[in-house]
Amino acid sequence: MRGAREVGHLVCGRYRLQQPIGRGAMGIVWRARDELLDRQVAVKEVRTAGLAAAADSDGLYQRTLREAKAAARLNHPGVVTVFDVVEEDGRPWIVMELVPARSLDRLIAEDGPLPPGQAARVGADLLSALACAHAAGVLHRDVKPGNVLIGPDERTVLTDFGIATFQGDPALTQAGMVVGTPGFTAPERVRGDSASPASDLWSLGATLYTAVEGRGPFDRPGGATVITAGVISEDAPRAPSAGPLGTVIDALMRADPGQRPDAAAAASLLADAAAAASLLADAAAEAESGPSYPGGMPVTDAPAFGEVREFPAFPGLPAATDQPSFADLVRFADPPWSGRRPRPRGSRRARVAALAAAAAVVAAAGLVAWSYARPVGAAAPPGAAPPAGYQWHEVTAASSGTVAGFAIAAPASWQITRAGRATYLKPPGGNGYIEISLAPFTYPRPLGEAGFLNAQADGQGQYPGYRLIAIGTRTFLGSPAAAWRFSWDPAGAGRVDVLELLVTENTQAGTQPYVLTVSGPSAGFPAAEAIFRRALRTFQPLP
Length: 543
What we know:
This protein has about 550 residues and is α+β, with helices and mostly antiparallel strands. The chain folds into 3 domains: about 10-95, Phosphorylase Kinase, domain 1, CATH 3.30.200.20; about 100-280, Transferase(Phosphotransferase), domain 1, CATH 1.10.510.10; about 280-540, Mog1/PsbP, alpha/beta/alpha sandwich (Protein Transport Mog1p, Chain A, 3-Layer(aba) Sandwich), CATH 3.40.1000.10. It is about 30% helix and about 25% strand. The protein has helices at about 55-70, 105-110, 115-135, 185-190, 195-215, 225-235, 245-250, 265-280, 280-290, 350-360, 395-400, 445-460, 525-535, and strands at about 10, 15-25, 25-35, 40-45, 80-90, 90-95, 100-105, 150, 155-160, 390-395, 405-410, 415-420, 420-425, 435, 465-475, 480-490, 495-505, 510-520, 540. The strands form 4 sheets. It has a 7-stranded antiparallel β-sheet with strand order 12-13-14-18-17-16-15. A 6-stranded antiparallel β-sheet has the order 1-2-3-4-6-5, covered by helices on one side. Strands 7-8-9 form a 3-stranded antiparallel β-sheet. The longest helix has 20 residues, at about 115-135.
């Protein structure tokens, strides 16, 4: 049996081994010097002894050599460059670019999980490398955190193309080969099916899950056998810390390879998630400047989370050319604000950290690309004739104790109810609402407030099953606004989508914040949103 080489050994008369920098089931990675070209390299000593029967050892060697040569043909900044493949004592040595970086698993162990925004950027780089490899006919077969290098300049590099294929997993193919690493090998491969680009993308999803959660998606006591059984028999779990990156992870880890996105679709999703951190950087900066009201609101002003009230649903509007169908609107419940916005809890440092975390995970995608600009002549001051079938509703500043109030036109059959500084438009005979809140903002601008509310909703548990869909910037009545859309699971009501529009208006009496909200069942939300948008075309502040 051939043993490992020692420090100072000269491989093939050219590569001087200096020190081990990595170890795995297939061998050792050495820091070495190419004495011909006088440069630092990484040399992988592939060890086959003890891993397979003698008859299989030669086949393993030939497959390793062939796939290393295939990887050497790849030219991509996200792929470790293979300089040479040499043979000594009947086994291959892979000579590669030496990348000054830490592996993703080491980075997680030393620094903790990645923020979702950074993880999305890492995922985009890895996906680009995989797409290059797949185009060249090379399948990685062992994408995992240990095979991902991240440098101090955030360069992300995928290593071990075709070399780590046979590490770790006790499940074997019909030829007796180990199929990959437990918990990072796609279920179809564990069952013995051939590898495919979709298999690599599943492994990418598992790697991204680990990046944001700090553990593998199927990690559990019991070792490789239990983990592998979970991959085969269970749906992939959701990553609770992933924010909108969770949508990408969910899609990549679908059990059916035919239902996974291809590289182009996955790249688009990852780009959206990565752009979110940049989009909400301003929100985090606003948090650093503190609340817009001295000292913020007292903690005692915070609502008791968990209260859920039901309001009538939307049975329809008077006849209109853009009238949607409401047959798919079902029973649902509203967010448990009780007419008040949640106020900050804990220290300012903790609030800043929460908002910064929110900024790193929010996706710009997922919102319908509209801006609320009222068409000329679409609304008239209260007292003027409302649109046909509608009537004006007014909330004055005096009645709400605010700087300004508002007017809005709603179908004549709808009722208006008040709860503190919140106003609800409620049609008869259903379960739903449109809300207009006049509660003060905690942060100066709408985008910062939206990021703060997302952090509150995500971190305090008042929305069971909370799932962020998007936060983005919009325009409303000519002023900068923010739109926040999410979904949640009120008990017994089915999944609900919520869209909130946040804006600060400069009125004759001063500055007044508004939050306009619509909530509806996820399946019928487009119809609910259509009603909301029509109502917004009549909205106007009242001094």
